[in-house]
Backbone:
């Protein structure tokens, strides 16, 4: 295989499994070339990715030597992605009876999620989470994409416990908006204690769910190292959590004039 | 940018968005080279992928000319992936009280799902589904990965309807195993009528859920072009659906001797 062929193959392997560390020796076996030749190949890939902002290729020096890929986005790319999402969410036909808006297509579309997962991963990677935790149902796709970018497992907390899960820990919590008592439950086996967890959800009003998830993590003796929500509403003003990262703010749903106002979060 | 740099960048773009058609003109603009030079680049990528079984790079000829990537697996790769999953599921510590087995870590791990989604996509691509449809909760990650590989939207059917979804169609159905009446509901806006849909779920006993989903698709005037389940149990013998594709069979959970027996499906 010539250099150009090797580069195609190595790029494919790196991109397909973000964060996986490949040893130079693995590639040397596959392609039958020396490690110094491979180092040159990797330098070319790193240069090309750097020049076009295609993510980060990190080479690890030392006795073994290796390489891995991070699908990190630049600040400009994050701004562009979030602006596109705002436009999409402002489509007036999303308005539902009662002033709700229909977002299921956005939060379940592999196309839109690809970058939303990468945004959360870019932001939270340095906190070294070991699990992404979400609560069923709508937040699961966003959480899975985040977990994929970080190459860590996803844990799904249930609203109701099901018999096939084995022993579960169940907790009641107060929903922030409706002030109703709700239930969360999670299998005892789902999380190793003392883990560092990243909470991800699709939609936050008062933050009761994130508050409840945080308390549940305490019961598992796990540390919440970050909290991310895709959409945060402007109402109510008082939130039950403070140190969370929202991507967009849903400011207003004006049913009368069929207008939705969505803005990028302040940090964007 | 030299050829090797271009190949790194083009490979990254292709792999990251399976099924997306890139026009040669798009690449010509980015790299400032002629279409014939790009055709040579793409031939190299195609050769490298072909030689190492890294998926299919398809060039589209004609006036516009384009290229796209399919993350298809070979039969040998599918067999290997499914064998690994069987081994994983046979770990005796998965046995739960009541003879259930714990599978949440397998069906939520981005690492294992990556290839499970590609297996379903490889098998069902030719039926040209327009949506992947699943029912909450545990099947969502597998379904999302399948939808990503096929580059089509995911639609999640709810067990209970929530107020923020707008008008929903609700249906009762009889669960196959427990013979209980259960509920499914789906937002009226979630699916365009006359669509071709692929049903994906994580676990099938009698098949009552898949049967119910099929009936629900009929109410939306959609055609079910395929049904895939990750794990099918050997019991009960009588199934409520027949033309589905399972990846593995859970033959036996022997609580006494702490043994789980899982086999690849017959077609593998």
Residues:
């Amino acid at each position: 295989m010539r250099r150009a062929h090797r580069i195609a193959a190595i790029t494919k392997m790196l991109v397909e499994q973000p964060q996986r560390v490949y040893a130079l020796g693995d590639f040397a076996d596959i392609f039958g070339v020396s490690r110094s030749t491979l180092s040159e190949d990797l330098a070319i890939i790193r240069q090309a990715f750097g020049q076009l902002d295609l993510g980060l290729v990190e080479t690890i020096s030392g006795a073994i030597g290796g390489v891995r890929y991070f699908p990190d986005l630049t600040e400009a790319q994050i701004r562009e992605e979030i602006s596109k999402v705002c436009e999409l969410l402002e489509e007036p036909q999303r308005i539902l009876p009662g002033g709700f808006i229909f977002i299921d297509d956005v939060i379940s579309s592999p196309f839109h999620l690809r970058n939303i997962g990468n945004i959360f991963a870019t932001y939270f990677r340095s906190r070294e989470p070991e699990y992404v935790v979400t609560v069923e149902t709508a937040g699961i796709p966003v959480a899975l994409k985040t977990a994929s970018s970080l190459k860590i497992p996803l844990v799904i907390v249930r609203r109701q416990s099901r018999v096939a899960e084995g022993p579960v820990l169940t907790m009641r919590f107060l929903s922030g908006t409706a002030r109703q008592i709700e239930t969360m439950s999670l299998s005892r086996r789902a999380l190793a204690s003392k883990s560092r967890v990243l909470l991800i959800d699709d939609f936050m009003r008062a933050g009761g769910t994130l508050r409840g998830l945080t308390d549940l993590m305490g019961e598992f003796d796990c540390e919440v190292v970050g909290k991310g929500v895709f959409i945060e509403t402007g109402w109510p003003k008082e939130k039950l959590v403070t140190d969370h990262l929202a991507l967009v703010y849903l400011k207003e749903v004006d049913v009368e004039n069929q207008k939705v106002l969505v803005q990028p979060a302040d940090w964007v």
